[in-house]
Amino acid sequence: MDTWMRFMSSDGGIVFGRVEGGYLHEYASLDHPVPTGAVLSTRALTPLAPCAPGKIIALWNNYHALAAKLDKPVPTHPLFLLKPAGSVIGSGEPIRRPLSYAGKIVYEGELGIVIGRRCRDASVEEASAAIFGYTLVNDVTAADLLNENPHFAQWARAKGFDTFCCIGPSIVSGFDWRQGRLVTLLDGVERQNYPLDDMVFSPAEQVSLLSQDLTLEPGDVIACGTSVGVGSIKDGATVSITIDGIGTLSNTLTAVQAATQTAATIAAV
Q1: Tens digits of residue pLDDT in 85-98
Q2: Residues 43 and 60 both lie in one domain
Q3: 138 lies in the same domain as 172
Q4: Where do the H-state alpha helices sit in the chain?
Q5: One domain for residues 228 and 112
Q6: Is pLDDT at 31 greater than 80 in this prediction?
Q7: From CA 173, how far away is CA 116, in angstroms rounded?
Q8: What's the domain count of the chain?
């Protein structure tokens, strides 16, 4: 397995590459993975989300256990919504509560598929070859907004706020998702622990079927959906999502008051 990360350098530039032994072996880009020859110490770099997706496709009802708990039929095609690119943050960055929203905010620990090549109307075999690797996703939701308007379910608004798509800390190629388990901790207490092989649609099936609806581009992320154990996050709480072999994605929900005070302090300087 290879571990890939994306960083900001001291001069503000963005570098991407394979990480080994505390060093980044730089590559041109995710969609053009050719080594540049540069080797950089990760201690001198600031971690970012491991890719910059043009779109994030987030699945719903893609685990048998959750479908059974919700008494929902297993879908025949992936059920999905889109999250905007501007909602992406990396591990360690704060989830910011919207100033206009005081309701419940929910975490969802998920496996993420990272696309490595343009993909349209792909067979399952072609789709498998188009997967660059796997990452972790926290699909954050302002839950009270979903059904605020009885005439229109607000999936895009509820899940599309800035910082509501946590991705990271890395992309791992060659990862055997069938052997993986996802564990979510909320302030150190286990809330989710489920096997990835309980998925309704395998990663290759997801890519193949979704490519019949949308052209998938390099760097796009498919959040594979979550299973049982979803819950709410209080202001100041930290959500940590782990899959052995990929790492831990950890983010803290920043309270409105703290965010407002920080902004006011900066403005006063």
Answers
A1: 999 999 999 999 99
A2: no
A3: yes
A4: 64-70, 124-130, 155-159, 203-210, 256-268
A5: yes
A6: yes
A7: 10
A8: 2
